[in-house]
Amino acid sequence: MQRILSQLHFIRTALLDPQSPLEPLGCAGRRISRSGSCRVTLPSSTIVLLFVAGAALTWVLDRVIAYTGVYSVVWHPSLFRASLLVCVCGVLGLAVYR
Predict the structure, then answer these.
(1) Sequence-distant (≥ 6) Cβ neighbours of residue 85 within 8 angstroms
(2) What is the pLDDT of residues 20-76, one digit of tens each?
(3) How far is it, in rounded angstroms, from Cα 17 to Cα 22?
(4) Any idea what DSSP says for residue 37?
């Protein structure tokens, strides 16, 4: 375990060091500033918010479906829940980006 951690530390240090011959982490194809750093962007906050809203809406729908007893006729409830999450997030994404 210690060996793996030391290798990960080496890789992290090599990628974040501005003097390293390796390209800094997150700077692929971007210009590096004079200080040797680059701007690392996070995933679009809109997509993250849509996923959180979709997860909350899926949880509410899941509770309603469980309360009504529909899961008694569903072949695989866990697969149904995962599919429901994908469908809800897909609909929310289409509603926003269309």
Answers:
(1) 54, 55, 58
(2) 555 544 555 555 555 555 554 445 678 888 899 999 999 999 999 999 999 999 999
(3) 9
(4) -
Q: How far is CA 28 from CA 11, 31, 35, 96, in A?
A: 16, 9, 17, 29
Cβ proximity of 88 and 57 under 8 Å? yes
pTM: predicted TM-score of the whole model, two decimal places: 0.55
What the block records as the tokens of 96 is 């926003």
Assess contact for 44 and 37: CB atoms under 8 A: no
Question: d(Cα 84, Cα 77) in Å, to the nearest integer?
Answer: 10
Q: Give the whole-angstrom CA distance, residue 80 versus residue 74.
A: 7
Compute how many other C-beta atoms are within 10 angstroms of the C-beta atom of residue 85: 18
